[in-house]
TrEMBL record:
InterPro entries linked to this entry: MBL_Glyoxalase_II (IPR051453), Metallo-B-lactamas (IPR001279), RibonucZ/Hydroxyglut_hydro (IPR036866)
Necessary cofactors: Zn(2+)
Protein name: MBL fold hydrolase
Pfam families associated with the record: Lactamase_B (PF00753)
Sequence ranges assigned to domain Metallo-beta-lactamase in this UniProt record: 14-174
Domain of life assignment: Archaea
Keyword set, alphabetical order: Hydrolase, Metal-binding, Zinc
Species this chain originates from: Halarchaeum grantii
MF terms in GO: hydrolase activity; metal ion binding
Amino acid sequence: MRVEEVTAEAESFTCNAYLALGERDVLVDAGAMAGVADVVAEHTETLDAVVLTHQHGDHVEELDAVCEAFDPDVHAYADHPRRTHALADGDTVAIGDETFDAVHTPGHADDHLAFVSESTLFSGDVVVHDDGAFAYGSFGRTDMPGQSRSDLVESIERLLGRMPDGVEHMYAGHGDTYHGDVRDVVETALARAEQFEPKYPDE
């Protein structure tokens, strides 16, 4: 499975949107970068599906444009006008060449899902490799209305419980991709989140 970060050249704020190419070409999150659909078209003529980790604006702003360009299936936990397939905790979804387990991971967002296979984790914003707070093993912010650090901690624990030991590729909603011991990154993020200290000084 080849994974392309189609928002890599973004000049404004967006999530990382990933195009997984294989038996089933799938876009994980649509991002907020104008022209995402054009970048997808540079890699494939057909897009089978879009899979959403959650529906914050930086993850779905370009969803309409992508749907208009490719008419893909849209898989999501929460309702959305473009959703064609509802996903619940424990459901499976084909992404690229692999089958992924959908893990409900609220805390940063009530509708948040992470997707994990035998080798790969699309973590959305529940856990990231690096960001402005931590360089190795960070977690989604929980200081905005409707967010919960307690729920996030439980979500990371749930994710660890469902993650095979051999996962070595991590594609997060923000920060860099990571290839290596993904479990160690997630365990590090959990240890930091469990301290219940502000992630950013202004929280």
